[in-house]
Nucleobindin-1 (Amphiprion ocellaris), 454 residues
Amino acid sequence: MNFKPGWLLLLTISAGVWSVPIERNGGNQEPKEEAPEENMDTGLYYDRYLREVIEVLETDPHFREKLQTANTEDIKNGRLSKELDLVSHHVRTRLDELKRQEVSRLRMLLKAKLDSTNTQSLQMDHASLLKQFEHLDPHNQNTFEAKDLELLISTATKDLENYDAERHEEFKRYEMLKEHERREYLKGLDQEKREKEEKRLQELKDKHRQHPKVNVPGSVAQLREVWEETDGLDPQEFNPKTFFKLHDTNEDGVLDEQELEALFTKELEKVYDPKNEEDDMMEMEEERLRMREHVMKNVDTNKDRLVSLEEFLKSTEKKEFNNPKEWETLDTNPVYTEEELQRFEAELRDKEEELKRRAETLRQEQELLKERGKALEAQRREYQQAVLEMSQRQKEQQAADGQPPAGPNGELQFQAQTQKPDDKDCVIIAKAPAEPEVQNNLPAEPPQNLPLHT
Ligand SMILES: [Ca+2]
Ligand SMILES: [Ca+2]
């Protein structure tokens, strides 16, 4: 699969956590490995559908040709989607099948969601629930139409744009939780220990802050370092065009987000070492994201989330390119305010309270079940007693009538009852000849109900 830049708009992903830093050993120019595009994950929950639709569309010669000439605007404004009407029948059939699969997957997701929230799914209206998914047209669930392609492109573009913002937000929460746990931990110590720990933690923080100068991403100093140390080339011969070609690892003519992020590994290694207690690798990935955003902001002038050779070369002519300033690392400015932390902690407390409440409800329900069990047991005993008494009365009646109870073959079944009827657990044992003794707490059947063996 060789995506054109327009498609890359959709498929070049901000997922820095999955990006693999490219390490080339100095001087050894090994043949370039094709970047495994199949492994690139957009992180979108409909990533697979998006990918498969594009793969199928690429097999159609007409659509492929249109794609070669389409620009980002054509893709964004839906002009390209109109071309869907002209693709071959075979391709349309495959797209229809993909859509049906996706709709069926979404239905399963909905069902799982409703089951987990205990919502009665008997009257679940799938058609209207499917409307919450914006990457396909829910009104028509069987065929893939131009509208589906348009929605898929616009939703994926929008979602990818929001993706970085969500990652920053997630990171902020991670940092607040870390600080919250640090404070709670210190609170639990006695004064002497706390002071010692505070000092130790401060020393770690200071140690983390001591690192070699970090170059501004995208500046000549930063690129030259990669050129020299990663590519093993002579710094005196630094050439932006060669640099661009070297780092366009999938050779599609543009630097995508992952290719850019790979360039920052050298800088990040100055600050973060997984072996050090004071260096947090989550912070390293946030730093990588910040660096990529910085470069994109300055270099990607047409805002398609890709750096073309032209854009790259233009950026090297700007005066910031030669800026020898240092990059302000993540620890220079706090990512949250004290007020935000307070709010976050209040949220945590609320959640904890809610969990406690739920545990208490469960405990009460358990108690109730126990009580009900007891009541049922008492009922069972009462019933047993009633059966016993009835059986006793029948025997007395039979004795009064002078008819000893008889077994199936006319043998005497019962000895005269000597136990007191008020002994609740007492059970009369019916002794059938040649049968093993039956001993259980089940109510004894009145003799006349015994099955007759013939
Ligand atoms: Ca590339
Ligand atoms: Ca661009």
The chain has a mean pLDDT of 82. The longest strand covers residues 254-255. The chain has 16 helices and two strands. The pocket of calcium ion (ligand 1) is lined by residues 248, 250, 252, 254-256, 259 (CB under 6 Å).
